[in-house]
Amino acid sequence: MADPTSRTFRSTQLLFDNLMGKILNTSTIVPDLINCSLSTLRPVNQGKDTGVDSVCCYRKTATAPAFDRVKTYHKFINETNGFTKLQNYNLDPKSLFVNDYHEASPPTTVSPTPKPQVATDCFTLNFTTNNLKYRTQMSIPKSKLFSSTQRLFSKLLGDIWKNSDIGPDFINCSLSTLRSVNQGKNTGVDSVCCYRKTATTPPFNRVNIYRKFRTETNGFTKMERFNLDPDSLFVNDYHEASPQTTLSPTSKRAVATECFTVNFTATSLTYRPQMADPTSRIFSSAQRFLVNLFGDIMKKSEVGPDFINCSLSTLRSIHQRKYTGVDSVCCYRKAATAPPFNPINIYQKFVNETNHFTKIGRYNLDPNSLFVNGYSPSTTDSASDLLSYELGFKVINKNLTNKNPLSPEYKQLMGSISNELNQLFHQSSISDGFKICAVTKLRIGSIIVDCKCYFHPSGIISKDTIKNVFQQETQNATSQWLGSRFQIMGFTIEEYPSAMATEPSKQELPYWAIILICFSVLLGSIFFFLLCVLTAVWVKRRAGKYQI
Question: Transmembrane region positions (predicted)?
Answer without folding.
Answer: 511-539
